[in-house]
UniProtKB/TrEMBL annotation:
Gene Ontology CC annotations of this record: endoplasmic reticulum membrane
Protein name: Elongation of very long chain fatty acids protein 6
InterPro entries (alphabetical): ELO_CS, ELO_fam, ELOVL6
Any one GO molecular function term: fatty acid elongase activity
Catalytic activity: hexadecanoyl-CoA + malonyl-CoA + H(+) = 3-oxooctadecanoyl-CoA + CO2 + CoA; tetradecanoyl-CoA + malonyl-CoA + H(+) = 3-oxohexadecanoyl-CoA + CO2 + CoA; dodecanoyl-CoA + malonyl-CoA + H(+) = 3-oxotetradecanoyl-CoA + CO2 + CoA; a very-long-chain acyl-CoA + malonyl-CoA + H(+) = a very-long-chain 3-oxoacyl-CoA + CO2 + CoA
């Protein structure tokens, strides 16, 4: 989809979406994406240093702060899912599935351009999720901190190159996070959420990872035909990331809901 076609799309944009400078954002990310390694290094130090500090201290309640934090991320994810989903639906309806995978216009199209950049940047503050686990002295599993680190690194790495498949990755993640953070907010507020809700969210995460693998494979296949703009190393990293997530989330689902028959915190 070229820029002339994009300008004719029947989308209602808010002023902040219309004024967003995606070229400047992409240029900034090309120059600064490696800073994500610094964020991750600090994150790891704080995670394991924080656990050590809290070992001899009383756990903190933080219920009110957690409600506000989770609700804010839920609202952000719901809006992001609606805006990117709207754009995704339009491309699927007018151009088909293949175009939805290969189209780069998610990075600079109306509505989606702002939410694509917001998605990438949000992976840094989302690291704050772990602070609540540490300060409340809850069990911190490998899946949680591994997922946070790798999503941040891959998102920043990919945005700078505007690789194919990004539209699906962003829309799926926004949608799953809308469910997940809404669940967190409800639980933190003291509502009794039915156990199947947690199971559905984890199942949605597993589906997301399987779809991420499928999209990566299709990008590779269609890249050979000259239709999907991407890079071999990006596809390799995406495939390894999604495969590891698929295995880890499937194991989490089995351990939490099938083997022990107990509900655990969704990651």
């Amino acid at each position: 989809m070229n820029e002339t076609e994009i300008q004719r799309l029947p989308f209602g944009e808010y002023d902040f979406e219309r004024r967003f400078d995606e070229r400047g954002a992409i240029e900034w990310m090309r120059e600064n994406w490696s800073k994500s390694f610094g964020f991750c290094a600090v994150y790891v130090l704080l995670v394991f240093g924080g656990q050590r500090v809290m070992r001899g201290r009383q756990k903190l309640d933080l219920r009110g702060v957690l409600v506000l934090w989770s609700f804010s991320l839920a609202l952000f994810s719901i809006i992001g899912a609606a805006r990117t989903g709207w754009y995704m639906f339009y491309i699927l309806r007018t151009s088909g599935f293949k175009q939805s995978v290969c189209d780069q216009s998610f990075y600079y199209g109306p509505v989606s351009k702002f939410w694509a950049y917001a998605f990438v940047l949000s992976k840094a503050p989302e690291l704050g999720d772990t602070a609540f686990i540490i300060l409340r002295k809850q069990r911190l599993i490998f899946l949680h901190w591994y997922h946070h680190i790798t999503v941040l690194l891959y998102s920043w790495y990919s945005y700078k190159d505007q690789v194919a498949g990004g539209g699906w990755f962003m829309t799926m993640n926004y949608t799953v996070h809308a469910l997940m953070y809404s669940y967190y907010a409800a639980r933190a507020a003291g509502f009794r959420v039915p156990r199947p809700c947690a199971m559905v969210i984890t199942a949605a995460q597993i589906t997301q990872m399987a779809m991420g693998l499928a999209v990566s494979a299709l990008v590779y296949q269609w890249m050979q035909e000259g239709h999907c703009p991407s890079y071999f190393d990006n596809i390799v990293w995406a495939s390894l990331m999604y495969l590891s997530y698929l295995l880890l989330f499937s194991s989490f689902f089995y351990q939490s809901y099938l083997r022990n028959g107990k509900s655990s915190k969704v990651e």
